[in-house]
Amino acid sequence: MKSKKIHVAFLMGGLSSEREVSLNSGNACYDAIDKEKYYATKIIVDKNFYDQILTIKPDICFNALHGSFGEDGTIQSFLNKIGMPYTHSGANASTIAMNKLLTKNYLSQFSENTAEKIIFPKTYDFKSLNEYKKYLPLVLKPISGGSSVEINILNNENDLNNFKDKLFSNQFIVEPLVGNRELTVSVLENKPLVVTEIISKKNFFYDYNSKYSSNGSLHILPAKIPNKIYNKVIKWAKLAHKLLGCSGISRSDFRYDDSNDTIYMLEINTQPGMTKTSLSPEQAKYCGISLTELVDKLISKAKFEKV
Predict the structure, then answer these.
(1) In Å, what is the CA distance from 26 to each residue of 3, 92, 97, 216, 276?
(2) Which of 3, 32, 252, 277 has a CA 20 to 30 Å removed from the CA of 102?
C-alpha cells in the first residue's frame, strides 16, 4: 500500500511591507518541493488566515512569511497553540530577532562569557540634532522589519532635518555607519554554509532595491577576506543562531572594516529570503544543496513548541 504524502501548506503573502518578497519566496519554495514526497498547497495569508489553516488542516506549515506577523513570533505562537508543526524558528527566537535593539542587547549580553563575544555597532540615543551632527554619517533603521525597508544613510545636516521625526522616534534606532564591506552567512541546521560578500551596484549599502532588483548586487562567495575574519564571521553566525535558539535556517549580516580588520554584527534574520536572487539559497547551492533539498531539510525540522 502506497504511503500517504505529507501535506505541506506554504504560508506566504501576509500584511507587512514585505508581502511581495514573501510571495516570491513562497512560490519559489512551492515550485521546488519534491512532489513525489509531499502534497503541497498555498495559503496566501491575510486577515482570514486563522480560519484557513483550521479548515485546510495540513500536516506541516512551511513559513515563507517575512516581516510583521510572520516573522515576529505572532504566527509561531498561534501554530504552537494549535499544535501545528512549522518550519524555521520558534516564537521566542523570532520575537527577539525581529527587534534589532533587543537582538543587539541579548546577543551582546549572552555572548559575554563565550570565547567569541559578538560586537555590534553602538546605538545612539541623543536628544538634539546637534549631538547627532557630531557623529555623521549615521544609519537610521526601523527597530523591526527586514529586507532593508526604510533604512537610510544620513550624511549631512539636511539629512538629519529631513528625518528628524524618525530620529526621535522609539520605532527607529540610530547607529554609526561602520565598515566598508558587507558580509553575510547562513546557518543551516546549526552548520554555517559559506560567507558571502555583497557589493551593491546601485547604492552604498545593500538596500531593498539592491536585494530584489535584477543585477542589483554582486555576490562573491566565498568572500575574499582574511582567514581570521572569515572564521570569526562563521563563529559569530553560529553562536548567534545557537544563543537565540534558532531552528532550520538563519542568516546573519555583518559589516567589515578592512582598514583595521574590525567586524560588526548587524542583525540575524530568522526568515531569510528564498527567492531566486536570495542569499541563503545561493549559499546552499554553493555547498551542493539544491533548493529542493533545502526545502526538504527545512520541512524535516518542522516542529511546534509546547505551550
Answers:
(1) 26, 23, 21, 21, 11
(2) 277
